[in-house]
Amino acid sequence: MSARTVRRLSFWTIIVGTAVLALKLLAWKLTGSVALLSDALESIVNVVASLMVFYAIRLAAKPADDDHPFGHFKVEYFSAVIEGILILIAAALIAREAIMAFNEPRILDAPVEGIALNLLASVINGAWGTLLMRMGRKARSPALAADGRHLWTDVLTSGGVVLGLLLALATGWLWLDPLLAVIMAISIIFHGGRLVISSVQGLMDAAMEAEDLALVERIIREESAGALEFHDLRTREAGRARFIEFHLVVPSDMTVEESHAICDRIEDALEDQLPGARVTIHVEPEFKAKHV
């Protein structure tokens, strides 16, 4: 997937998020439900986060320069960390509204219309969140994928809110409305914490997944005919970029041109199977071998 497509998706996420926010605010206005207000507060975070993601993806697509010779890929992880922090702030605001509502429970106005609008907003969020997660994985964009997971968390919490409100209407238990808001705040705190932790892992130069690492090792073995061995393989990921580094041991009588041809063959195969791969190979003479 091209960087242009990723940027386009991130832009439309802002539009979709704004439309969903408008629907949820209208649902709250119609009903006066603190649970629906909590849902709308989280959607405000969604819109702000989408703006950050859009900026982060545009910056991450910039080519390497003198100040950033390895590119700007990690900015997407910063975006995801900030999004997680915003989610935690939203949870605190929701908890505050819920505590206040416990003291003054109120009968909901126009509940059917409000719940219908909230359900419509959830359907839109679910469809768009699924698209973002799928495209985010395909494009190896942590910011895009995080945005999609956030939207699906919103869908699940919105579904719980609607079910709870239907129960409150059926039983007359008005305290269920603020209770739902508290439960939603706890759920959001859990999700925000997970998002921050996973994004920090990216900032810490985590190695490639085991499946991808096995693929790298297989490609090197298959494409290194003429060399004696490879060792000290190290990998790390930064957004869409994958950095692969290892030592390649060649016979002492091999020419520079011959060893360079082997390196080119390995690099081409890795970049073909792992788009975004940045490969660094240290060629060493035979006496540096560790396993021969």
From TrEMBL:
Limits of the Cation efflux protein transmembrane domain: 14-204
Protein family (similarity comment): Belongs to the cation diffusion facilitator (CDF) transporter (TC 2.A.4) family.
Keyword Ribosomal protein tagged: no
Membrane topology: Multi-pass membrane protein
InterPro entries: Cation_efflux (IPR002524), Cation_efflux_CTD (IPR027470), Cation_efflux_CTD_sf (IPR036837), Cation_efflux_TM (IPR058533), Cation_efflux_TMD_sf (IPR027469), CDF_Transporter (IPR050291)
Protein name in the entry: Cation diffusion facilitator family transporter
Localization in the cell: Membrane
Keyword Cell membrane: no
Transmembrane segments: 9-28, 40-57, 77-95, 115-134, 155-173, 179-197
Gene3D superfamilies found in the cross-reference section: Cation efflux protein transmembrane domain (1.20.1510.10), Cation efflux protein, cytoplasmic domain (3.30.70.1350)
Keyword vocabulary terms for this entry: Membrane, Transmembrane, Transmembrane helix, Transport
Cation efflux protein cytoplasmic domain segment(s): 210-286
Source taxon at top rank: Bacteria
